[in-house]
Amino acid sequence: MRNFVIFIIIICSVSFLIAGTRIDSLEVYLKTADNDKKVVILNELSQAYQEISARKSITYAQSALQISQESGIREDLATSLTNLGSAYYHLGNYNEALEFHFKSLKIYQQLADKPRMLIVNNWIGQDNEKLGNYDQSLNFFLISLKLSYEINDQNGISMGLSNLGNLYHSLNNYDKALEYYQQALKLEKDSGNKKEISLALNNIGIMYANRGEYTESLDYYNQSLQIEQELGNIKSISSVLNNLGIVHQKLNEYDKALAYFQRSLDLILETGNQYGIAETFINIGQLQILMNSMADAYANISQGLKFATDIGAQQLIMNGYLALSDFYKVNKNIDESLRYFRLHTKIKDEIFSEEMTQKITSMQAQFEMGEREHDFVQLEKNNQIMELQAEKKNLHLLLLLASLFMVTGFSVVQYNRNKNKKINNIILQNEILDRISAEKRLIKRLKIEKIVAKISSRFINVSDFDAAVDETLQEIGEMCKASRSYLFLLNNDNDTIDNTHEWCKDGVQPQVSNLQDIPTDSLPWWMGKLENDEIIHITDVSKMPTEAHQEKKSLQDQNIKSILVLPLRSANNLIGFMGFDNVYKAEQWREEELSLLKISTEILGVYFDKKEIDNKLEQA
């Protein structure tokens, strides 16, 4: 069993290295790019981070949006809005995602950009599906599919078929869903699009699992997992691991199922995808009921239900209620079991109402019987026009290239002979330096990923909270070469705050005993930022703003030169903060340190949520 868990961790770590290579290259280019190129690179980075870190994806998309708003280039503006919407979708904030996707769709409609319109319509359909608005979801999926047929976009057709499959899966129509998934897989295999092939394989695996055909399901999941490892898609890897856990649970292989779920949770916590986090917590809780680990089961199901409720994911809320109903049933509390079952049934009746089913059936039939025939006629005309235009364009291009070659060919060859040696030497030197720099970044990223995995696992079933926090602070501090790392928690009345845990580098004076019962009103600037869920990132304490004079004096009294602090929240309330500082020199904290601290505070926040649930359970 231990070797099995190690195997999962190793293959996922390799995937992260693969994903990091393209991102590192883009981040290098970003430093020297002008604004026109910068907005393109920022949008590419936003897309690259969507399945790795939704929050980073949002940051890059916001930067791209700001530049495109200043430039007034509408195509760039629409792309940035689309990426923002998609990043919020991956984060699990579907209402926010809808807002940005509708804004981008409006611009693409004005530009009459059908390829982009079909993509955004698909996103809007997915947003609505997660919110349980299935009729709206189908409407936008069909609009997207119609556009795909009009312009003969095979990828768009495949994407539309996959999304229709997802919709029918949500409606528990597994045969119809499987039909669409298999059509999508055939198209993607013809095109060779690995990411979409993997998605189709995973979706087909889900359908076979729902039908109780577990051998076939495992085969499709493993094919999908192999592709996702090659691509390095963290969110997708987490999804497949979660699905593998479900199948092994059905096969009564509980230890193996738990290992898959826990690794899936480690990965999805890193991306910040709240839908995936909620789903995995509920799955772990349901498994723990079967394993007779009742306190952990209740805490994990309740935590998953909290995330699901925060993002309005009706399907997950329904599943969470059913899981709690099962929990109380096993524990002989029939009243509570019935209460949660009624809540589950209420949502189910709303989602699967007869009116909704008839509406969806009618929309689907109208599309398949009427619109599609018209689209194929139009498609043939469009193909003929496109072929003629392409032929004409290619002829002009060949004539132009021939002319240019005849006029400039000899001079270019002669010039290159003189410059080649010098240029090649410079390129070789730059490649060596870039490779060394990239390797160092990849090594550090792998170390950070290992620390994140350890921290996440540590707080899933923690027995000694103080020791767990101390170990975590030390690991973070040593990785980031900080002077101190620490945890502060608000007292019950929120009027004072205490430094509860601290790690110090050798030779650095501890401050924990001096930082007790600090009145929060003595830190107005500091606490205001934390209450607004803002990161406090001070690269040079001596240059802090005038309004932060009280905090500046306190930091200088401790000889702190630079500091990085993140708010710690539980049940959406501020309960403290976590951070680290440098007493030797003023410097800017790097993105990897910020990422590590973000993940650590999120994991701690989840722990405090679970702890509060445990306390309520004990009192009950």
What can you tell me about this protein's structure?
The longest helix has 107 residues, at 354-460. Helix content is 77%, strand content 6%. The protein has helices at 2-32, 35-49, 54-71, 74-91, 94-111, 114-130, 134-150, 154-170, 174-191, 194-210, 214-231, 234-250, 254-271, 274-290, 294-311, 314-330, 334-351, 354-460, 465-480, 524-531, 549-557, 591-619, and strands spanning 484-490, 496-504, 518-519, 536-538, 562-570, 573-582. It contains 22 helices and 6 strands. The protein is globular and about 70 Å long. The chain starts with a helix and ends with a helix. The chain is an alpha+beta fold.
Q: Topology of this protein?
A:
Layout: H1 2-32, H2 35-49, H3 54-71, H4 74-91, H5 94-111, H6 114-130, H7 134-150, H8 154-170, H9 174-191, H10 194-210, H11 214-231, H12 234-250, H13 254-271, H14 274-290, H15 294-311, H16 314-330, H17 334-351, H18 354-460, H19 465-480, E1 484-490, E2 496-504, E3 518-519, H20 524-531, E4 536-538, H21 549-557, E5 562-570, E6 573-582, H22 591-619
Antiparallel strand pairs: 1-2, 1-6, 2-3, 4-5, 5-6
Helix pairs in contact: 1-2, 1-11, 1-13, 1-18, 2-3, 2-4, 3-4, 4-5, 5-6, 6-7, 6-8, 7-8, 7-18, 8-9, 8-10, 9-10, 10-11, 10-12, 11-12, 12-13, 12-14, 13-14, 13-18, 14-15, 14-16, 15-16, 15-22, 16-17, 18-19, 18-22, 19-22
